[in-house]
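Re: Re: token formats

Sure, here are both.
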Amino acid sequence: MTLPKGTVVPQYQPELKSKAFITVNIVSQQEIGASRLVFDGAKETVKSSLISMVSISCYGKNAVEMTLKLKSILQATRVRERLRGIGGAIINMSDVRNLTYVLGASAEERGQFDVYITHSHVTTLSLEPIELVDIYTNNSIHQHITKD
């Protein structure tokens, strides 16, 4: 399952060079529940479960038909297995929208739909040991506590 080189491009390009192309854009991400924290004494790992809304737009001749086909491909067993292999899953897809519009004397065909994907996000932080702490009490007594 591959697409020709140059057909999937980042959205928000100042100038797109191809007549037919697909853009993929993460629109939003929502955390599901609380993050899980793991600390091993030197580093902390924060694991979060997310739902991301990804907008997929197809441009060019027969864009709406291409969008319908792409939506069907994303429901295939092979795609679901690959996503599951990296800890993700498609949980919902919107209807395909026909966003074709007239530009000058010609029409620009565009089809679009949203995909909701669950996945994990992991961040690892190294934690340096605290060597010196300044403590101020209610009586404004300044104390230094150092690591032995």
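Second one below.
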Amino acid sequence: MASNHLQGLLVTVMIACVATCYGFGLSLFPQIIPDMRRDLAFDYAFVGTVTGLVQLSSVASALISTWLVHRIGAARTVVGSVTLCGLCLLSIPVASNVYVLAALLMMAGSTGASTFVPMIDIASRVVKPDRRGFVMSLISSAPSYGVVINSALVAAFAGSGHWQIAWYTTGAISIALAVATCILFERAGLSGDPPSRNTDGFAGWPSKLRSITPWVFLIFVLGFLNGVMPFPYLTYLSPLLREERGYTVGAVSVLWATIGAVGIGAGFVLGTVASRFGSRSAMVVCYTCFVAGGVLMHIDTSVELSIIAVASFSLGFYPIYGLLPSYVAYRAGPHVAVTVMGICTVLQGIGGTTGNFLGGLIKTSTQSFGGIYLAAALIAAIAAGISMLLASDREPRHGPGTLAR
């Protein structure tokens, strides 16, 4: 176990890596869509297709990164993912062909999953057991830091027609972080550690899953809904506000900054709720926040009410991805939890693809983005109901098949 000082540095770098690959690689494009459309002349069918393909590439990335962790180690997988993200970000401004642009966005977006998956392994090696839940909550909220930086860059450069600078800046930050992470992991002895002897990260799944049915299927449904529901909310937010409701670039940047700022504190807030009342209760709170955020955004609102809507959304969005693994680990133990969450990551990617595709379909059929947010609220309400069917994680476990009483 690392010293307290080194442990703090490692946790900071872990948060920065996830913030970079999710915040820059996945979240910058939705904020800058209107400006890129003006110069590159792509339509919203292209946006829906690309964002859907990005989620699909995350599915493949989650599976590949799981395999890579067993082959080359978690540390090298993280460094490689951050490096790939940076190279893609630097290449996006010079891509004049929309197909090349789509490929770069897919690769950049996929690095989020390939960075987050190895974090579970690294955290188990550098963080004390009684602190791992808290650290994973912070890591799951890390993309909010990237969103805050994105908002500042978009406000500074996109409005004046220099959206390319935002990509160059985030790309340079990513490359610099990759170098720093590589050096720190080497000094901590993480990069030199041999991979797990079990090189097949998927061995034994059927027998493991049989031991925890039927509640695990509810977890799989939640994993899918965690992709369907929030990703279209973010993907179509800037187009809704700027093109349909006439918000200025500055006003939309304030809303994106709100998402990031609230997300920074959301891990602490929902982590406290989980500590006192259990992860299941905290998940219900998250989904309730999604419902409020979707309903409020569906209404043709003022800027002030839109801020409340995105703040409510952000309060639930970031923590949910740490709370679900926390609940599964409590019910099934860490080894089976890795299997379950591997499948959930795949389902989440499929859900994101489905959600973005349906979002584009709703816009095309209704000529409005508003229906996307009403649909998100309805799906969130269903997810809250499913969460309440799960057994409480604040009570003694009564066997693998137990549901809520």
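Residues 54 and 106 are 4 Å apart (CA to CA). The mean pLDDT is 82.
- S.
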